[in-house]
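Limitations

Structures in this collection are predictions, not experimental determinations, and the ligand pose is part of the prediction. Treat each record accordingly. The example that follows, with magnesium ion as the small molecule, is included so readers can see exactly what is and is not provided: the inputs are given verbatim, and the output is the predicted complex.
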Amino acid sequence: MDAVIPLPDMRNTITTDVAYCQKLLRSNALVAIPTETVYGLAANIYNDEAVRKIFEMKGRPLFNPLIVHIHHLDQLSSLVKSVPEAAIKLAGRFWPGPLTLILEKQNVVSDLVTAGKSTLALRMPNHPLTLELLRGLDFPIAAPSANPFTRVSSTSAQHVADYFGDRIPAILDGGPCTVGLESTIVGFDGSTAVVYRKGGISLEAIEAYVGEVRLLTQNENAPQAPGMLAKHYSPRTKLVLSDDVLKTMKDFVNHEIGVLAFYESSFANAKVVETLSEERDLVEAAQNLFAALHRLDQADLDIIIAQRFPNEGLGISINDRLERAME
Ligand code: TXA
Ligand code: MG
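Predicted complex:
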C-alpha cells in the first residue's frame, strides 16, 4: 500500500500531472479538478474519510449532498437502481456535459455522499483532463464546486488556489472553464423531469428532449435540495441586482461602485465595469460571470450593481446566480 506519497514543492499545488492526481485520489487525498462548468473538489466516493475532508475543507454542512462524477454509462448500474426513459434521453444528448441527473441510489453509495437521501446526483463532466483522470481510477469521484460554502464558484485553477492555498494537495489545471455555470440538475417525478437547479444547459434545451419540465418551488427546494439555499454564490462585497443600473447608481452616490454589465462598458461614476459579452452572447456571458465576480470582489468596492440579464436561455441561469449572490 502506498501510504505516503512524497509531495512536490507545496507552492506548486497547481499541476497538469494527471497521474499524480490519480495517485493522490487513490490514497484518499483531495484533488481539485477542472470541469467545463466550474472547478470541483474531488475525493473517492467509496472512502468516507476522504469524502468527509471535502465537507471540512468547504465548511459545508453535512446535510448538503454531493455530485458523483463518472466517465462511462457502464458505471451507472453499480451506482443507481434504475434509469427512467427521460434520463436516458437526457444523458444521451447532454453527457458528457453540464447536466446532473438525480436517480435512486444503490446501497453501495454511502450516506455521507448523499446526505442520507435515497437519491444520488450524477454527472459525466466534459473536460478532457478530468475524463482522463476518471478513466484511470477504479472508483467515481464526488465533487462539489471548489469554493468555501456560500462563496462564488471557481472557474480557474487560480481561483481555487486563492481560496484554499496549499491546503489542497493538488489542483489539476485544465484552464478556464468553458461553460462557467454549474450543471443544470434534473430529477424525475414519474415521467416528468423536475429541474432542481438552473445551470449550464438552458431550460429550453432540456424541454426540447423531454417536454415541459417542472421547476422546484422554493419551498420544495429547501428540504429536497438543501444546497439551493437562498444565499449562495456570494461575493463578500454587497451586490444588488438591478433592472436599471444608471437609476440604481443614484442610490449609491459617494460609494465606490462596480458594475457587472451584459454588453455595455461605460457607466459614468463607476469605479470598475465588468462587461460579460460585448457581442451580447449569453453563452459568453455565462463563461465570464464568476471570474468577473471574483475580480469585482477584489477591487475594494462598496457595492456591486449587477444588471439583470434577459430572461431567456442561459440568461435565466445567470439571473438565478445573481439573485442568490444578493441575499
Ligand atoms: O457543475 C457542477 O455541478 C459542479 C461541478 C464540480 O460538477 N458541481 C457542483 O456541486 O456544483 P455543488 O455541490 O456545489 O452543488 C451540487 C448541488 C447541491 O446544491 C446539492 O444540494 C445538490 O446538488 N444535490 C446533490 N445531491 C442531491 C440529491 N440527491 N437530491 C437533490 N439535490 C442534490
Ligand atoms: Mg456549489
